[in-house]
Amino acid sequence: MNIILVSDSLAKSRSVSLSQTQVLLIGFGVLVAGFALAVATYVVTMKFAVDMRNPYLRSLLAALHEEQLKKNEAEMKDNLTAMAVKVGELQARILRLDAFGERLAKAANIKREEFRFDEKPGQGGPSVSGGMGRELTVGEFQQMLSEISRVLDDRSDKLGVLDSFLMDDRLARKTIPTTLPITAGYYSSNYGQRIDPINGRSTFHTGVDLIAPAGTAVLSAAGGVVSAVEFQAEYGNIVDVDHENGLTSRYAHLSKSMVKVGDVVMKGQQIALVGSTGRVTGPHLHFEVREKGIPLNPNKFLALGKNDILIGSAYRK
User: What integer is the mean pLDDT of 229-241?
Assistant: First the structure.
């Protein structure tokens, strides 16, 4: 670029040549100088606006301040709304955990007064720094809520595992013959050595005899699968239930069976009717429990159930 200088003081005109780089540097310098001037003007104006008592500057500052306050207020409302939602979620989860804990305590046979989930835990202690503490910031409060949420997740997982263990235990109990197979009647013969009622000799009785009228409902003492429905000379009509844990229960001298081999039965489900078939002196139910084919004392299993009214004095003998 060529610049020609013409002046009355000069005898002749002068020409100045500038390269492209020099032109760019000059232009950049002009821009920087303009920007610096604008910043300096703004700083001076804002700093001395009050002293200058300029109504326009006062109104401008007030408008900017009000806009900033509105912005801060909107952000605070958003934070409060978000935290309120989070607190509501945590409260709902705590209520669910309380109900879950009460159910687990009941399943574990823990007295309700020992675990009161509806009461706040007792807390206290001496105050520090003269009772004056530092207020939490919004960020610290949000971090605390996040930590509480993480702890609740951990407790939920652990209670879920505990519930699984208790569920397994409850299912196992349902497959143990702890329920008397008749709802009305009394013992006529117990497990163990006895005098045979037909030949009068000392023999070993592999079960218990429960006196009940013919046609009385016979109930399964535990859940399982029916493994035998047949007639045997000694037992008469029988129903065997396999409990899939090495235990089987037998119901003998039946007048009629209500199930067939392969049926899945639940604890307390009717499976037959009391009768007097086989080697008997009258209507009754012969009930026995075997483990891998070996007869066990049914009373040890029935004692685990709620059979006090039905067992009566005959059991205590």
Answer: 96
